[in-house]
Amino acid sequence: MLDSSGRNIDYMRISITDRCNLRCRYCMPQEGIEKVSMSQILTFEEILRICGAAVSLGIRKFKVTGGEPLVRKGCTGLCAELKGIPGVEQVTMTTNGQLLAREIGALRQAGIDGINISLDSLREDRYRKITGGGSLEETLRGLDAAIQSGIPTKINCLLQQDFNEDELPDFARLAFERGIDVRFIEIMPIGFGRPETGISNETVLQRLEQLYPNLVRDERVHGNGPAVYYRLDGDAAMETKAVESVAAGSIGLISAMHASFCGSCNRIRLTSQGEVKPCLCYEDSISMKPALEDGSEDALRRALAEAIERKPAGHTFEDRGSVDRRAMMQIGG
Ligand code: SAM
Ligand code: SF4
Q1: Residue 21 alpha carbon to ligand 2 centre in Å
Q2: Using an 8 Å Cβ cutoff, are 225 and 154 in contact?
Q3: Is 190 in the pocket of ligand 1 (CB under 6 A)?
Q4: For a substitution probing ligand 2, which of 24, 136, 138 has the most ligand atoms within 8 Å of its CB?
């Protein structure tokens, strides 16, 4: 369905829980957030009904996220059921990877089309610090399992000044050597995220160009999102000092703060409590609960269509006062 700015909305991110087994410092307070009772959280049956209605409006791609989606029991079964809705083209997941090695077989069986793993540091001590106690080893096990399973896998990384910015070359090498996409995401003023502590993707690109003089734009389609991709140009990769093997993966830059990608935004978000957010930036949301109670698919379609129509032309992250005060795990990152 087209929104009022003429954009085709064909993608919905579904937060299936606001709980998480990590406490990433830009996302969650160390003590966690007040637990929402399960009675307020959408059941899988309700999520599937909403998604069925969304498909009839032209939404064909779903991303399962959270909180940490894999902490909710039955998550892989939900993915399989989403894949089974006629008309669904793609179901992907965003995870911190802590439980991924254990769940990868079930995700593969579910037919999942892609996995994004959030990984901000390749050093155990830093990883533990940034995630509030997570195990790098577990996430790397999850990454290996995902790569071995053949499911297209990407890494999402937030670089922060004086913390992990020096790992940029390590992440670039990871992309090029293991043939997976690594995307650098600019920190947004959502939750506990403070953009001034982040690194702009302009700086990331400059540093990458210094490391890899043969870096070129990668025009291939990599996914549904706003990332701009770069790859190494052909065999010349072998000649640059920084690269030890043939280039295969690409580097994506998701410049939430420093580039305007709103003109091609294709998504809405469903929170775990049943609200549809037209835009990540603002508090505005439409509750699906009255439509769920109504019981008809038409009511669900109307509520979703209203959310799509209410999509603003763009975000205003630079004006902090207008930004949704909820954290990313409540919104569905
Ligand atoms: N727990 C899963 C994970 O970490 O991948 C899924 C949910 S998490 C909220 C989704 C993504 O949002 C993660 O990649 C995380 O780094 C990102 N995120 C959280 N807070 C953010 C912020 N303030 N700015 C930019 N990205 C943020
Ligand atoms: Fe949890 Fe993901 Fe937020 Fe980290 S970014 S605290 S893993 S929801």
Answers
A1: 8
A2: no
A3: yes
A4: 24
Domain with 61, as residue range(s), is 11-331
Tokens, residue 136: 């790098």
At 189-240, the pLDDT tens digits run: 888 888 889 999 999 999 999 999 999 999 888 877 788 999 998 744 444 4
Number of domains the chain is built from: 1
Q: Would residue 2 count as lying in a domain?
A: no
The position carrying tokens 């809705």 is 85
Q: Is residue 3 part of a domain?
A: no
- 95 Cα to the center of ligand 1, angstroms: 9
CA distance 266 to 246: 34
Q: Whose CA is nearest to atom 8 of ligand 2?
A: 67
Mutate to test the pocket of ligand 2, among 115, 118, 127 (most ligand atoms within 8 A of CB): 118
User: pTM for the whole thing?
Assistant: 0.92
Distance 27 CA to ligand 1 centre (A): 7
User: pLDDT by residue (tens digit) across 85-113?
Assistant: 999 999 999 999 999 999 999 999 999 99
Residues 6+ apart with CB under 8 A from 14: 47, 51, 62, 63, 64, 65, 269, 270, 332
Question: Is 46 part of a structural domain of the chain?
Answer: yes
Question: For the chain, what's the residue count?
Answer: 333
Q: What is the largest CA-CA distance in the chain?
A: 64
Is 6 contained in some domain? no
Listing DSSP states for 240-276 in one string gives STT--S---S-EEEE-TTTS--GGG--EEEE-TTSEE
